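Supplementary Note 3. Input sequence used for the single-chain structure prediction.
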Amino acid sequence: MSLLEENQATDLEKIVGLSRRRFISAGALCGAAMFLGGNLLSRSALAASVNSASSKLLGFDSIAAATSDTITLPPGYSSSVLISWGQPLHKNGPAFDPSGNGSAQAQEVQFGDNNDGMSLFAFPGDDNRALMAINNEYTNYRYLYAHGGMPQSAEEVRKALACEGVSVIEVQRKNGQWQFVQGSRYNRRIHGNAPLQLSGPAAGHELMKTAADKTGKKSVRNLPELRQWQDAMGHLSDL
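The predicted structure, written as discrete structure tokens, is reproduced below.
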């Protein structure tokens, strides 16, 4: 049976109880809301229309459109901070410097910046422990550096690269709430400056050899590469 057949339910439909026709209808309303994006009143009206088709999908009510700089939750829900950018992953780690004067070396052992996608891996046989692998997508130079602009040195480029990558943290559930376990032996950063071991038929090939690694079996950055990256970022900022 083809996945495109009209009467076959997808996995998403089975989970949320949403028919293809209702999904398309709600999607059209959301698309109209984006098209009318500048008008908060029109978005609110469309949100109210979508509400009737979506409020029961995942078991909670929709929230009203808002422009306030705060977290808005449906009735009966609460929020709490699990971990923040720059928080040390280990107890003896360097404290976060909100002034923007922190070093690249410090950022390499701190939680990364601007996370989006993530995965949770439960500990076998323990429902109250898990690992989270969290993507750190990008960084904001406005907050990363004290001067608030583009990187101006190789060290600042290293700091930007240290913000990105993946943060792996252990979390534990205590009294019904998940908490970050600072100092867990599983906590680590995989950042833009981290050397990577190459394997497979490409490892050791002549085209993989660089000034930083003449064996061609590691992916590492060197100072000239950082300067080239800095120059490229400078050119982009001039466009």
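DSSP finds seven helices and seven strands in the chain. Helices lie at 11-16, 20-35, 40-54, 104-107, 141-144, 154-163, 223-238.
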